[in-house]
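Input.
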Amino acid sequence: MSFEINDTTSLILQRSLANAAKEAERSMIRISHGKQVEAMENAANMMIAEGIESQRRGSQQAIQNAQMGMNMLSTAESGLSNMAENLQRIRELTVQRENGTMSEENKAAIDSEIDALTEEIDRVAGSTAYGDQKLLDGSSEDVTLQIGANAEKETNSLKVGDAFTAVSSGDLALDRTAPDFLDRIDNALSAINGKRADIGAMSNRLESAIDNLYIQNENLTASQSRIRDVDIAAETSKLTQNQILQNSSASLLAQANQNASIASLLL
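Output.
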């Protein structure tokens, strides 16, 4: 057995000790962060994971957008429902007024209530709003919801403003003095209920979009997790392995250094 000053065994053990220490440190960092993908380790997977992250967060925001859109539609439908109820009462009063048993005083009282209800329809049309956005005065016909994570409008947006058209008494042609007033009321009711049906159809479409976005978000999260998240059990096992290698290398390095020092006894 020869004894040399430059012991290559010691150098090999030093390299093994450094590698084991580096891998153990890397495992501890991964476990503490819960992530396994870093740009310096796997640039391709990092880019894929970040792309999925953009889609995932975009779909989450799209869910909120669609839910806010449903709230907006619900607010508009509530206003239209109130208008329909007032129109039903106006129709009831109009039928009552046409009865021959009504005196002029009775008819005047009925006319007063009809006028008040007509004014209430106008008030509801002007005051129904979602935040600062009026819904039933004709100013929201261009409202479009972003219900997708991407920029393509054909597949990621939905125009709901078509359901928000003007519905004031003037738009409904409610003129109490007109000879065909009862027919006008029926036409107004038909128009109001048609708009409510449009809102209902749009709400159902948004609900379907929300369900699809939830499924999409779940799949994106699962895909991202497989790429980016660390397997705690596997990484803990790897940490233990590297700690054992680290301790073994340190012990062997001490022995290698001791063997090299024997050369000095030969002097």
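Strands lie at 129-130, 133-134, 144-146, 157-159.
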